[in-house]
Amino acid sequence: MALRVFGRPEISGSFDIGPSGFVRLPLLGATKAAGRTPDDLEQEVTERLSERLDYSIQVTVDVDTYRPIFVVGEVSRPGQHPFLPGMTVLQAFATAGGQPSVRHLPPDQTLVATDSQYRLRQAQSRLRALLVSRAALDAALSGTEKVTLPPELQPIANAPSVVELISREQDIITAERERLEMTRDMLLRQHQELDAEVAALVAEGKSLARQQAMVNREVSNMQTLRDKGLTTSARMLDLEQSLAGIEATRYRQTAYLTRARQAQVRLKQTMEETREEWRRDLLRRRLTTVGDIEIAQAELEAAKDRMAALSLADTSLADMGLGPMRLAFTILRNDGNTPVEIRTNGAMPMRPGDILEVKAEPAEAVTARSLNN
User: Considering the entire predicted model, what is its pTM?
Assistant: First the structure.
């Protein structure tokens, strides 16, 4: 604890609270500190020092450092760990590594057990990813905007890994839809340009037809005048050349119009095929995903069977009901001068100096003890 006496630095400083719960303070000697709040201790020290010094003084008492806790037994990192205010048994267990060790297994099975745990988690992660991927493909095929959580993952809907998977697949499907829409918009613009070109060619064709009709009438009139000797052959030749030029232009215009209309048909087919190809791709991917899900389910069952055979004291196995072992928590606490042993669950608050013992015990024993307590 940290004691600060205003104007008296010689009696201020940091002081350790002993195992008995008492702290030795200047001028006051042994003072009980265990189980008391800083405010409560501050009030007592202020009153006693003021009485001892025969004048009123200002005192502050704060927690300087907490005594560490100790975690032993079925943890990855047994030993001393820092205490944090509000720490529970489960948090202390996590601070010490969380994952139970496999030291209770025979030495030749330890490596096998670790590998089996890894395979089990890999199979779980792979199956979850495939289930979410199938849900995303179903959403895309049905035209649904939002990817819905698969029924198999409803019990762990709020798990960070599942939320991340849903978000990732949603982003993938959204990006694919955006690319499809961009392609569709580009093809639609091309189709509109072809529509405008066809309309222009049709208008040009009508104009050429009118010009040709006018020239034909003039040629007919000129032939009549030439027969009467009222015009020259040169004028007639000019009209015939103009008529030939108009006819050639009409042939080219007709060819352009035919090609433009053919391009319209091909572009429309491309627009339909682009969306249909995406749908076929989604169906192929879904079929592959369904097959992969069956394989992943078989791998998961094999991993569960392997773990069950090893009887590992793993909390993840306990949640799935695979192993016959469960974790039991015991707090060894020095309450004053009397050591106390407390069998508890993960929600109980820890205190500075506590020793937490984690044991792997048969599930029946842990359950029976929990009911008795």
Answer: 0.43
